[in-house]
């Protein structure tokens, strides 16, 4: 069985981007982004959660929607704002490719 960190690295380096990774908490969103930046040497990977200032959230939203190769680690705050009709159980971490909301899998 692969570790979550290994699975995240695999997704970040092999899956088509952009990728949105849903995390359980603010801390896990920040930690996931930090871990992926370290593992992939990609400093563009960002995090998003309700604890950010409105301007920070707006900048990240614009960046994510404009980028073709983005990875965003987020709490459900992003899903509530941008996909309010989407239901997910946030008991774990999920990945979701932008523009294909039906493509959800555990990671």
Word description of this protein:
- The chain has 107 residues and is α/β, with parallel strands linked by helices.
- The protein is built from 4 helices and 5 strands, in the order αβαβαβαββ.
- Strand 4 (94-97) and strand 5 form a beta hairpin.
- The longest helix is centred in the N-terminal third of the chain and has 15 residues, at 26-40.
Roughly how much helix do the residues carry, as a percent range?
40-55%
Radius of gyration: 13 Å
Total DSSP helices: 4
**What class do helices, strands and sheet pairing give?**
alpha/beta
Report the sheet-strand fraction.
15-25%
Number of strands: 5
First-to-last CA distance: 12 Å
Helix-strand sequence: HEHEHEHEE
Note poorly predicted spans: 84-107
Largest sheet geometry: 5 strands, mixed
Gross morphology is: globular
- With strands numbered from the N-terminus, the spatial order across the biggest sheet is 2-3-1-4-5
Mean pLDDT: 75
Summarize the topology:
Blueprint: H1 4-14, E1 19-22, H2 26-40, E2 46-48, H3 54-66, E3 71-74, H4 76-82, E4 94-97, E5 104-106
Parallel strand pairs: 1-3, 2-3
Antiparallel strand pairs: 1-4, 4-5
């Amino acid at each position: 069985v692969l570790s979550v960190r290994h699975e995240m690295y695999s997704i970040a380096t092999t899956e088509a981007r952009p990728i949105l990774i849903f995390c359980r908490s603010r801390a896990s969103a920040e930690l996931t982004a930090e871990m992926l930046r370290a593992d992939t040497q990609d400093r563009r990977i960002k995090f998003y959660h309700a604890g950010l200032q409105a301007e920070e959230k707006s900048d990240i939203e614009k960046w994510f929607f404009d980028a073709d190769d983005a990875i965003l680690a987020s709490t459900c705050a992003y899903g509530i704002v941008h996909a309010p009709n989407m239901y997910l159980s946030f008991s774990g971490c999920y990945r979701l490719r932008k523009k294909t909301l039906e493509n959800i899998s555990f990671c």
